[in-house]
Design a protein that fits this description.
The complex is a heterodimer of chains A (311) and B (312). Chain A has 311 residues and is mostly helical. Chain A has 13 helices and no strands. Classes of the chains: A mainly alpha (311), B mainly alpha (312).
Chain lengths: 311, 312
Amino acid sequence: MAKYIVKRFLMMIATIFIISTLTFFLMHSLPGSPFDEERTSNPTIQANLEKFYKLDQPIGVQYVYYLKSIVTFDFGPSIKKPNDTVNNLLARGFPISFELGIITMLVAVVSGIILGTFAALRHNGIIDYFAMAFAVVGISVPNFVLATLLIQQVAVNWELLPTATWSSPLHMILPTLALATGPTAIIARLTRASMLEVLTQDYIKMARAKGLSPVRIVVRHALRNALMPVVTIMGTMLAGILTGTFVIEQIFAIPGMGKYFVESINNRDYPVIMGSTVFYSAFLVFMLFLVDMVYGFLDPRIKLHKKEGEV
Amino acid sequence: MVSKDHRITIPDEWFKPKKKAEKVAEAVVRPSLSYWKDAWRRIRKNKLAMGGLVFLILLTLCAIFGPILSPHSVTGLDLPNQNKAPSSTHWFGTDEMGRDVFTRTWYGARISLFVGVMAALIDFFIGIIYGGISGYKGGRTDTVMMRIIEILYGLPHLLVVILLMVVMGPSLTTIIIALTITGWVGMARIVRGQVLQIKNYEFVTASKSFGAKTSRIIRTNLLPNTMGPIIVQMTLTVPSAIFAEAFLSFLGLGIQAPFASWGVMASDALPVITSGYWWRLFFPAFFISMTMFAFNVLGDGMQDALDPKLRG
C-alpha cells in the first residue's frame, strides 16, 4: 500500500509538472507581447513594464522563475489589473467556486445514489423507468441550457427564486440545480448498473437466507460494494463540475473563479490564465489522488491489481 | 473398443458415408448470424436506440440540405426584421441582426455533427494505433506507454482544451485539434484492454503457429474482435465533443460570428432571454439536447447489442 501511495504521489507531481510546463510554453508561443494593445509611445515605460514582468529575460530564465512561482505558490501580479495579484484573485474567487462545486457534488452524489438504488431495487418498475428517463435527459441537456431554462421559468416567470448572484442559500438553489443535474444522472446510472449486478451475487442471497432485514441488506451488503464504481469516477466528475462552474458563474453572475478566468481569457491576461490553470489543474490532480487513496483504502483488492501493472 | 494393448480400434461402420436423411437432420435450418447481423437484430428491437438513429439520419439530411434549400442565407443581415417570432417566412424566427434562425440552426447542425464525428474519428485512429501497440507488445513498452496515458488522463480535459483554444485562436480546426489532443486517451485505454484480453485467446495462438505476421494478426484477429466496445466508445465521444464545442462557443472560444453554431446561438440568446424572444434559445438548445440524447441512447443500445456478456 505504501508503495502504491508513493507511486501515485509521484505520478501526481509529474502530471502537475507537465501541465505547468505545457501552460508556460503554450502561453509564450503566442506572438507579440501582452502590452501590444496599449502600445506606449515611451520605450522606457515599455522596458520597465517588461522588466517588472520579467519579460526581458531569456525564456529559459523566465521558465525557472515560473517554476519557482509555482513551488512557492506566488503567481505574481496580473497584467490587466496591476494592483491585483493572481493570488488575490484566487483567494477571492476560488472559495466561492469551491463552495458551488462542493454543494453540487454533495447534491449529485446523494441524490444520484438514492435514485440509482431505488431504480435497481424496483428493476423495470415505474421508479426505474422514471429514474432512467431522468438520467438520459440529464446527460443530454447541457448545463448552460438548463441554467437559462431555470432562470426563465423559475426565476422570471414564476418569481420563486432570485435570478442571479450568490448571496444567500436561496440564491444558491438554481445554480446548484443547473450544475448538479448532469452529474446526478451519471451517478444514478452508474449506481443502478452496479447495484443490479451486486444484487445477484451469492453474498446477497446469503444475507437474505440469514433473514436480515431488507434495509440492512441493501445498505450494508449491497450498497457498500455497488458504490465502488461511483468512487472511481468522483475525481473526474469533480473536474467536470469545477470547469462547469465557469459557465454557470457567467450565467448567474456569481463572482467566483470562473468569472476571473473567462475575463482573463478575453483580456489575454497571461499571468492570470497561467496561474489559474496551474492552480485548478493541481487542485484537480490532487483530488484524483485523494479519490485513488480512498479507493485503495475501501477496496483491499486494489493492492493485487496494481502490482500486475494493470490500469 | 479399447483392446488389451491399449490400442483403439474404430469400428468399420463409422467410416461409411451417412445416409441422406441423417445429413438433412443435422443441417442448420436457420441462416447463421454473424456478430454484426446479430447486433443489428438486437438493436432493431430497441425502440429508443432506433428512434435516436432515425433522428440522427434526419438531422444529417437537414444539416446537408437545410441551408441549401432555405431562401435565407446564414449570415445575411435583415435589420428591419430583428427578433421576429417564428412565422411562415422565418420558420424559427430571426435573431437580433434579422438573420434567419431556421437556416442558422441547420448550419449549426453541420458544425456540431462535423466536430463530433471528426473528434470521434481522430480519437479512433490514434487510440487504435496507440492502444493496439501498447496492448500487443506488452512488457516494458506497455508499461511506459501506460504511464504516459496515466499522466495525460490526470489532466483536466476541458481546461487543457480552453488553454489550447486561447493559444491557437478560435476556429473549427482548432476546436477539433484541442478536443482530440487529450480525447484519444480514453479510446487508447479501451483498445489496449481489449487487445490484452484477446491476444491470449487460442485463435490468435493458432494464427501465430501458422506463421502469420504481426500486422496480419492485428488486422485480422485483434481489430475485428475489439470493434464492439470501440464503436460504443465512438458513439459516446460524439455527444461529448458536441457538448464541448457548445461549451467553448458559449464561453466565446468557439466558432466566431457571423457563422453559427448551436453554442454561439444559445450564448447570443442569453442576454435577451428575459425579453421574451424564446425561439432564439429554444431551437439551438432543443437541437443540442436532442442530438446528445440521440447519440446517448444509440450508444447505450449499441453497448447492449454488442456486448456478448449481456446476451440473454
